[in-house]
């Protein structure tokens, strides 16, 4: 009987680990853009550094019309935009 319980427990742990993803793949951004629209349309930019749940730095742009999208942090123009907005709007990394 104890072998069955241990086997069931081991199976449960494996299933829980597999459903969690088994790796750090719970990023908010599934796809990223290399370009952005007019800066005047941007309401907010949230910057999330790499964490225990996601290996990537994520930049989430919120527009005044309610839409959101992610930018590729490796693109030079995106880095310049973030630096510019941090200076003018006081945006900070979360």
Automatic annotation (TrEMBL):
<dbReference type="InterPro" id="IPR001089">
    <property type="entry name" value="Chemokine_CXC"/>
</dbReference>
<dbReference type="InterPro" id="IPR039809">
    <property type="entry name" value="Chemokine_b/g/d"/>
</dbReference>
<feature type="domain" description="Chemokine interleukin-8-like">
    <location>
        <begin position="24"/>
        <end position="85"/>
    </location>
</feature>
<protein>
    <recommendedName>
        <fullName>Chemokine interleukin-8-like domain-containing protein</fullName>
    </recommendedName>
</protein>
<dbReference type="GO" id="GO:0006955">
    <property type="term" value="P:immune response"/>
</dbReference>
<feature type="signal peptide">
    <location>
        <begin position="1"/>
        <end position="18"/>
    </location>
</feature>
<dbReference type="InterPro" id="IPR036048">
    <property type="entry name" value="Interleukin_8-like_sf"/>
</dbReference>
<dbReference type="GO" id="GO:0005615">
    <property type="term" value="C:extracellular space"/>
</dbReference>
<dbReference type="GO" id="GO:0008009">
    <property type="term" value="F:chemokine activity"/>
</dbReference>
<keyword id="KW-0202">Cytokine</keyword>
<keyword id="KW-0732">Signal</keyword>
<dbReference type="Pfam" id="PF00048">
    <property type="entry name" value="IL8"/>
</dbReference>
<dbReference type="InterPro" id="IPR001811">
    <property type="entry name" value="Chemokine_IL8-like_dom"/>
</dbReference>
